């Protein structure tokens, strides 16, 4: 089990990034959450099997059509045993 905290920068707000991420996460079988931050980045925590988390991280580095990801800061954190994936209110 692996859990990561991710900050994605670039043109990632207003392009469906979070909602597409929710679909990608569901398809990959990972749990966690995502939200927009006021500085224009997208924040997320992703938890699941290491290969599934890696697959979601690979998608996050590209993003949906219309986005331009310039970077992703990934930090491993302790697993929380979460279930489901949610889009949270902006932080």
UniProtKB/TrEMBL annotation:
Q: Does the keyword Hydrolase apply?
A: yes
Which PROSITE patterns does the record match to this protein?
ACYLPHOSPHATASE_3 (PS51160)
Query: Which SUPFAM superfamilies does the record associate with it?
Result: Acylphosphatase/BLUF domain-like
Domain Acylphosphatase-like: where? 3-89
Q: Which reaction does it catalyse?
A: an acyl phosphate + H2O = a carboxylate + phosphate + H(+)
For this protein, the record's InterPro entries field holds: Acylphosphatase, Acylphosphatase-like_dom, Acylphosphatase-like_dom_sf
Domain of life according to the entry:
Bacteria
Give the family this protein belongs to, as stated in its UniProt record: Belongs to the acylphosphatase family.
Q: What is this protein called?
A: acylphosphatase
Question: Native species of this protein?
Answer: Microbacterium terricola
| Taxonomic lineage from the root | Bacteria, Bacillati, Actinomycetota, Actinomycetes, Micrococcales
